[in-house]
Design a protein that fits this description.
Helix content is about 55%, strand content about 20%. It has about 325 residues and is of the alpha+beta class.
């Protein structure tokens, strides 16, 4: 009897220890950072648990699954959207949201992620439906702003704050993509042709401008050179004239120099006719006197007196 009583007592103690352990496990809860827990007491909302250690009443309080308070990123699958010009495009969206009220996120909506996805799809169709394809492709910022405004307003009562909405991709039909590629290729070819023509035009203008400036500079150089040559010749003549007057040459020297100059008149193959002036007789007469000859004049008034003589070169 004593052995049976001891065995029963040991069983009771074990059961009691197990019960105490279960009570402690269900009573003491640790909430991690950036998490929140909703406590129901007898099936009714009682409080929201913040990060840290908390005590619950066993079998009376029930802790619902913890909610993540960090900003979450959800990428939704491509959605077909019809544009204003009746083209079907496939749009991928990414939504950034954060739970701000655990109680509202638990009791105001059954599945807030699915709700955000459906709301994003319907809002996206409304926004893109009022745009044509070109506007939809070039107005991403506008679409993102409109989506964020509608989602943030609608999800506010769910305890969710939508911070950003991004369009990850907008894929038009393949036929439209081919047409757009051809259009872009034609546009690039047109721009290249315009740039080439503009470059040729600028090159021609610069070349003509350079030639004009070169011609002007050459003309100015020639004019300055002619002026300098004229000044040089003028100064040379002036110096020769001054030297002659300072040397006071007599008639004999002048006649001799005059005769030395006459052969130069016949130089050149183009000279067919040249005239000997009547002063040649006087020059010869002066040279004869200088050499000691007589002062008699040539017969009949002189061979060269006032008689122009023609000389024909072969």
């Amino acid at each position: 009897m004593e052995n049976a009583g001891g065995t029963a007592l040991a069983i009771v103690l074990v059961v009691l220890i197990v019960f105490v352990i279960i009570v402690l496990v269900r009573s003491v809860r640790i909430i991690p950072q950036a998490r929140a827990g909703v406590v129901e007491r007898l099936g009714k909302y009682q409080r929201t648990l913040n990060p840290g250690l908390t005590i619950l009443i066993p079998f009376v309080d029930r802790l619902l699954p913890l909610l993540d308070l960090r900003e979450q990123v959800v990428s939704f699958p491509p959605q077909p959207v019809i544009t204003e010009d009746n083209l079907v495009v496939s749009i991928d969206t990414v939504v950034y949201f954060q739970v701000t009220d655990p109680r509202a996120a638990t009791y105001e909506i059954a599945n807030y992620i699915q709700a955000v996805e459906q709301l994003t799809t319907t809002t996206l169709r409304n926004v893109v439906g009022g745009l044509n394809l070109e506007e939809a492709l070039t107005s991403r910022d506008q679409i993102n702003g409109q989506l964020r405004g509608v989602l943030d307003e609608a999800t506010g009562r769910w305890g969710i704050r939508v911070s950003r909405v991004e369009l990850k991709a907008i894929d038009p039909p393949h036929s439209i993509q081919d047409s757009m590629e051809k259009q872009m290729r034609a546009e690039r070819d047109r721009r290249a042709a315009i740039l080439t023509a503009e470059g040729t035009k600028q090159s021609a203008i610069l070349t003509a401008e350079g030639q004009r400036q070169a011609s002007i500079l050459a003309a100015e150089g020639e004019a300055k050179a002619a002026i300098l040559r004229a000044d040089g010749e003028s100064q040379a003549i002036q110096k020769v004239f001054d030297a002659i007057h300072k040397g006071n040459p007599d008639q004999k020297l002048l006649a001799y120099q005059y005769l030395q100059t006459l052969p130069k008149l016949a130089e050149g193959s183009a000279n067919k006719l040249w005239i000997i002036p009547s002063e040649v007789g006087e020059a010869l007469k002066g040279i004869g006197n200088a050499l000691g000859g007589t002062s008699q004049e040539p017969a009949a008034g002189g061979f060269f007196e006032d008689v122009p003589t023609e000389r024909t070169q072969p």
